[in-house]
């Protein structure tokens, strides 16, 4: 699950510059990105990308919502460092691969000719790109991040697994709900926006 291909065909550039380029490309030209930037067996850059997004999200939570900072002893700085380390080393990789496993099962049920698990991991990882801003405590921003992430996931599944957008949307619905609705706080943000405009 963590294979790093030495010379991938069409894979992503490594390092901070590669992460920054991937982030811009997937936000601006997602269809082309998923068509050209996802390579079989080359999921390590995607894993690193997802970890960076998760850390950025949690940094936003810690910075804007001090109550979200864990009390681990040693003061706020140490608590923040330990919290981010847990997210980077344990939580983000585990969530990415569990979500990819669920997505793979659903694809097996719904898409006959599909790409491999590695490609699925990459699609999910890069679909999280908008969520670098999801830690901002503005419900409308969080809704936009989650909605954009869901759209990227559906588009990525359709492009990489060569299926229709409708079938991709059905296959990605549950993973998207878990990742963007619960993981990145999309459902709570939708509820907050609905209450603010008087729908609830």
From TrEMBL:
Residues 25-182 form the Yip1 domain. It comes from the Archaea. Keywords: Membrane, Transmembrane, Transmembrane helix. It comes from Halopelagius inordinatus. The chain crosses the membrane at residues 44-66, 78-111, 123-156, 168-190. Its main location: membrane. The keyword Chloroplast does not apply. The keyword Transmembrane helix applies. It is a multi-pass membrane protein. It is found in: Membrane. This is Yip1 domain-containing protein. One of its GO terms (cellular component) is membrane. Pfam families: Yip1. InterPro entries: Yip1_dom.
């Amino acid at each position: 699950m963590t294979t790093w291909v030495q010379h991938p065909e069409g894979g992503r550039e490594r390092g901070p510059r590669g992460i920054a380029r991937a982030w811009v490309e997937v936000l601006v030209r997602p269809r082309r990105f998923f068509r050209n930037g996802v390579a079989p067996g080359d999921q390590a850059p995607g894993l690193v990308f997802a970890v960076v997004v998760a850390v950025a999200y949690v940094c936003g939570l810690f910075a804007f919502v001090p109550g979200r900072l864990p009390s681990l002893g040693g003061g706020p700085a140490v608590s923040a460092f330990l919290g981010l380390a847990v997210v980077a080393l344990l939580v983000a990789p585990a969530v990415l691969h569990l979500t990819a496993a669920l997505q793979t099962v659903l694809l097996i049920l719904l898409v006959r000719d599909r790409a491999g698990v590695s490609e699925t991991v990459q699609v999910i990882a890069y679909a999280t790109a908008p969520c670098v801003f999801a830690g901002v405590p503005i419900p409308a921003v969080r809704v936009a991040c989650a909605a954009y992430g869901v759209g990227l996931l559906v588009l990525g599944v359709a492009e990489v697994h060569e299926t229709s957008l409708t079938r991709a949307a059905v296959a990605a619905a549950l993973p998207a709900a878990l990742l963007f609705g619960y993981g990145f706080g999309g459902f709570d943000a939708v509820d907050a926006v609905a209450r603010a405009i008087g729908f609830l």
